[in-house]
Structure formats: C-alpha cells, structure tokens
Amino acid sequence: MGSDPFGRAADTLTAAFTRRLTAAGHTDPTRLALELVVIARGHGWRPVEALRPPAPETGSGNGRAEYAARRAALDSRPPCACGAAVTDHQLDAGRRTGCEATGCTRYAPIPAPTSGRSA
To answer: Between residues 116 and 114, which one has the greater pLDDT?
Structure first.
C-alpha cells in the first residue's frame, strides 16, 4: 500500500475478512474483503496506534523494553473461563470482549484458587 502508514493493518483486516468470507462460501472473498476495508475506512476505521509495537530506537532501546514488559504482563494474565488466553479475545475500546475460537462473549478470568480457610 505504498506510503500508507496503516497499510499493513488494512492488509491484515483484509486477510481476516477473506478467511471469514471463504469459510462462508462467497464466490470472490478477496474482492469483497477489499471492498469491506474501503467501507470501514470510509466510516472512520483506523487501527489503534497504541497496539503497534514501538519502532526500533537508537540508543538506550527503552521503548522495546517497556513494550516487552507490557506484553509480558498481558501474557501472564490468567486464561478466560472459556479456556482461551486473554490475547485470543478481541480488544474493544481497551476492554477484552468475545473470543471467536470458543464463542464466549467477554473475557472473564478464571478466579484464583482459594485456600479453603474460613475467617
């Protein structure tokens, strides 16, 4: 997509649309997926800038370390009650929602085990 800074994200969205439309049996899923991306962009869709990994830095490289720390914190969150990891759930306005793999509607972490003692 040339100089488009979000071209890669649009390509990823197109691929996701294509997979879904192929599974649904559409005759030309790639063309329809491209049209859906154009429609989504026309209505204000843009990839969330905060989800992009930081660009390589010259010097200290603190941005990469900070990104790695945030990613590790996300990866260490408990799985959902549906059995899927937190990253398998869609991110919608900063909150984890449904998971396509299991069909659950929102991320609900498995509660931490209690010791069974009563106060």
So the answer is: 114
